[in-house]
Design goal:
Length: 466
């Protein structure tokens, strides 16, 4: 599962700026590129003016959440009000590989669930004018109440996370919480308690190792799982401005004391022998399988984990999470602070045949029925305000919800990985080396600062700020 989702943690090559420029300048002879978007009459029943007899193509990322929520909930809900629209559904595990040729050819689908290891580079799409400005959607009446705008049924964090330079281009649908995940059953059996500080965590790691269980593992092939935790620790220690300065490409931002200290702390896991042997070669499913088998106690992950593992984890595993421990007892933010953010973004292609229908589909998604049934099906929180936990919520989702309640407004997030793919790539590489003892925390910070400086100086890269 914008913003740093599980899928962004995994993402590899995305649609390049050059490819997008080619897409933005589809050849004059391409009829798909020339055909104007379909429109219809605006009315109370059709506030966005979609063509009621036009097409609507929906492409869903087929990952841990599957695509049944689209075929059994959202698409029927949309068609209940617009039955004559010609709806086409497909799913894929490779969003970029599947859709890049269609952007280049000028015939992208209306709705895209931009997720997965091969997700599209949204910043590049925005720069190339390929995404629909969703302001008309946010200002439209909500599906349930004509007196309430769509923007007011979404969590503010969702609107912010889907915006570039103040304009909304994506609707992140899943509200994800990150932390350290473990088996509540195992912790109870061993008498282990969730640590509040890093020193307490290291003490716990020593006890775990003595018991013959590797204390910590992560998806070594996808270092985003661990750099997410490093950045969270840094923000808790130094305050939100730590990553705000990084996002804004301020001089020396990556060399902040809080970032170096956090990187040092995580590097210590390798130095003390607290990592599962071979963790640097694992992918995300392999690290999760090792935890299911009792080989490792704690992994950094997100609130999608329980749903993703429901078919393979022991029935009594008892997923639970605790926040990334505080670096010190006295921090800039409370110990309960979390990295919590909207993810699994949905976008509408501006050059599709019926973009208004794409926006109307999103309007249906963020309805009470659409969000409520979605949560019930995939056991995941959404970005729709006031969405209650489904009755069948598992222990992991309940644990995440409790952590969110404890955090209150102490939630942290950043955008640098989303805005600048060049920095995200270097963050992966440098963190992989940090966690295997190949470089020091100071060298980690220096590498990232050099990359940030290069991005800042490159006039061909559009800059964003918050």
């Amino acid at each position: 599962m914008n913003h740093l989702s599980r899928r962004q943690l995994l993402r590899g090559a995305a649609l390049t700026g050059a490819g997008l420029l080619a897409a933005a300048c589809a050849t004059p002879g391409d009829p798909a590129a020339q055909k104007p978007a379909a429109t219809g009459a605006v009315s109370a029943a059709n506030p966005l003016g979609l063509d009621e007899n036009g097409p609507l193509e929906v492409v869903i990322f087929d990952g841990g959440l599957g695509d049944a929520y689209a075929t059994t909930i959202h698409e029927p809900l949309f068609l209940s009000r617009h039955p004559k629209v010609r709806l086409k559904h497909s799913s894929t595990k490779e969003i970029s590989g599947t859709l890049q040729p269609r952007f280049v050819g000028g015939n992208p689908p209306e709705v895209i669930n931009n997720d997965g290891a091969q997700s599209l580079d949204l910043a590049a799409l925005v720069r190339a004018g390929q995404l629909q400005d969703l302001t008309p959607l946010l200002d439209a009446p909500s599906w349930d109440d004509p007196g309430t705008k769509v923007r007011d049924v979404l969590l503010p964090a969702a609107v912010e996370a889907g915006s570039f330079d103040g304009k909304p281009y994506s609707v992140p649908y899943v509200f994800m919480l990150f932390g350290f995940w473990h088996s509540a059953k195992l912790f109870a059996q061993k008498g282990w308690k969730a640590p509040a500080t890093w020193d307490e965590f290291l003490t716990l790691c020593a006890a775990m190792k003595k018991d013959g269980i590797a204390p910590f593992a992560y998806a070594g092939k996808y270092p985003g799982y661990v750099w997410e935790a490093i950045l969270t620790m840094a923000v808790k220690h130094g305050g939100p401005e730590v990553m705000q300065r990084v996002d804004n490409l301020e001089d020396g931002a990556w060399k902040a004391d809080a970032l170096t200290k956090a990187a040092t702390a995580f590097g210590e896991l390798h130095a003390r022998g607290f990592l599962l042997q071979g963790t640097e070669g694992l992918n995300h499913t392999e690290s999760q399988a090792r935890q299911n088998g009792g080989e490792v106690a704690v992994i950094p992950n997100g609130s999608w984990l329980e749903n993703e593992q429901k078919k393979v984890a022991p029935a009594d595993f008892g997923y639970a999470m605790f926040p990334v421990p505080a670096l010190e007892a006295a921090e800039a933010m409370p110990g309960a602070a979390l990295h919590a953010m909207p993810g699994s973004g949905f976008v509408v292609a501006a050059k599709s045949r019926n973009p208004a229908a794409g926006m109307e589909y999103l309007r249906a998604m963020v309805s009470r029925e659409g969000a409520g049934k979605y949560s019930g099906l995939v056991s995941t929180l959404t970005t729709v305000r006031g969405a209650a936990l489904p009755p069948q919520a598992g222990p992991g989702l309940k644990s995440a919800a409790a952590a969110l309640e404890a955090a209150g407004t102490s939630l942290v997030n950043w955008r640098v990985h989303e805005w600048y793919k060049e920095i995200a790539t270097e963050l992966d590489a440098a963190t992989g080396q940090l966690m295997t003892g190949g470089i020091t925390a100071v060298q980690w910070a220096e590498r990232l600062q050099r990359q940030a400086d290069a991005v800042k100086k490159d006039s061909s890269i559009k800059k964003f700020s918050r």
